[in-house]
Each structure stands twice: as structure tokens, then as C-alpha cells.
Amino acid sequence: QVQLVESGGGLVQAGGSLRLSCAASGVFFRINDMRWYRQAPGMQRELVAQITSGATTNYADSVKGRFTISRDNAKNTVYLQMNSLKPEDTAIYYCAAKIWVRVGLTDDYWGQGTQVTVSS
Predict the structure, then answer these.
(1) pLDDT for 18-66, tens place per residue?
(2) Which residues contact 80 (CB under 8 A, 6 or more apart)?
């Protein structure tokens, strides 16, 4: 019914940049807030950035000043611009969205993840 598909991951050197995209498709009324998480091997899942339906943003302290989350409502897409990448940013990045699917149902959806690897 609803799918989230991430793209834009890859391998970059420290100091480089990547832009991740996450597009929602399917049948739904509205996307509420959208988030980016990441999970490195052996580590807990971490909330990286969030953007609400009102375009309010928040970031993990570790990425403030380097990452920017944005959304294009017309395209049902959220972006994560990542600059000045560090090796510790290496992780699988997942997008997640709270979506009003139909009357009486709002649910959380997750993408499959995209690998970001930053070499030193």
C-alpha cells in the first residue's frame, strides 16, 4: 500500500558529500513527519534528523552544522544533504515516515535502507 524507497548512498572519502533521497509511493492522504535514522554495525539505531509537517527540523548533535533535512511535499520526498562526512557517519541510513493512510489509520513506514560508507 505504501512504500518508502531510499537512494543516494555510496562510498565517499572523508570530507565529501552525499545527498540521500527517500520517496514515498502508494495510496495515502498525507505524510506527517519524516525522519532519517542510521545504524552502524554493533551500534544502536540513532535518530539523525527529523522534519515535521510544519517544516520544523531537529538534528542529532553529532550532525548539526553538517547535515540538512528537507522535504518536497509535491514529490512526497525527503532529502538528507550530508556534508563534511566523517568515517563515524558510516552506517545504513533509513528513512521513516508517519503517514495518514486512510480514515482511522495513521502508521509508521520504513524504507529498506541505503548504505553510506565514509573512508578515511
Answers:
(1) 999 999 999 999 999 999 999 999 999 999 999 998 889 999 999 999 9
(2) 19, 20, 22, 36, 48, 49, 67, 68, 69, 93
DSSP symbol at 42 = T
Q: In whole angstroms, give the CA distance from residue 73 to residue 24.
A: 10
Kindly list the strands in the beta sheet with 77-82, ordered across the sheet, starting from the edge strand earlier in the chain.
Answer: 2-7, 18-26, 77-82, 67-72
Query: What CA–CA distance (Å, rounded) separates 47 from 36?
Result: 6
Q: Is the dihedral of CA 118, 78, 64, 107 positive or negative?
A: negative
Put residue 104 in one of left, alpha, beta given phi > 0 → left and psi -120 to 50 → alpha: left
